[in-house]
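User: Here's a chain of 287 residues. Predict its fold as tokens.
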Amino acid sequence: MSGYVSRYAPRPGTIEPLGEHGRTVSAAATEAVSIELRRIEQSFGQNRVLRGIDLDVPAGQFLAIVGKSGCGKSTLLRLLVGLDRPTSGSLRFADRSGDTVEANARTVFQEPRLLPWARVVDNVVVGLGQDVDENTARVKALMALDDVQLSDKADQWPARLSGGQRQRVALARALVSRPGLLVFDEPLGALDALTRITMQQLVSRVWRELGFTAVLVTHDVSEAVHLADRVIVLDGGKVALDLAIPAHHPRQHGDPDLAVFERRLLDAILGGNCCELTVGPITSIGS
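Assistant: Prediction complete.
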């Protein structure tokens, strides 16, 4: 999917280089893009959903977006992947030298959305579009399946896979074109707890190896903290908190240092000292 710049008429202004993430990546690394949003407004009729969003995301950063239902998370996500255009404001993508580029954005959804009549490898090929010859497409699809440790299932039917395996195929389909921006829209919400942790570890590894810019929307604060370099809280269409997570990757569940960030985020979302008033940890927000 093309970035916002390529789909709509250019808007005034330019983008400045947003810096390096500083992470070592593999030779198969993607062309990560930086994101610049300026005074983004989005309204639907009289409903003002986004209110003056200003945000800079450096190339290769992993950003998570959390907040209560209706805060504008999904609306912002749709703008990033070019499904909608803002009512006002500007959105730009840039390469590492600061030049405005198309984002080559892909999305991983909560549901795998696989074609049941196509084998696993052919589902991944779908992510390449129609301009790649059959042999090249299969080679690239097998490489993407190897990225998600599922190359041995290439000729299986989707119905024979577990829920976690189907979601890994969906991730491979998004990765096969080596996107500069990968957007995760609650991709692990339907998985059981243990599979979800395994998938979090997989997403973290693939991001570290390939170096794409990642944006995750989730209701799970623990997931956001374990995956992201940075978490923003949206409230009423505005950025209520912009929190850096400086811990090294990969991260471990149960790390008490990460729990501090989870509490800060929950306080920002739910208000007050919510974690002190409940028995046991709260890590997710109702959808």
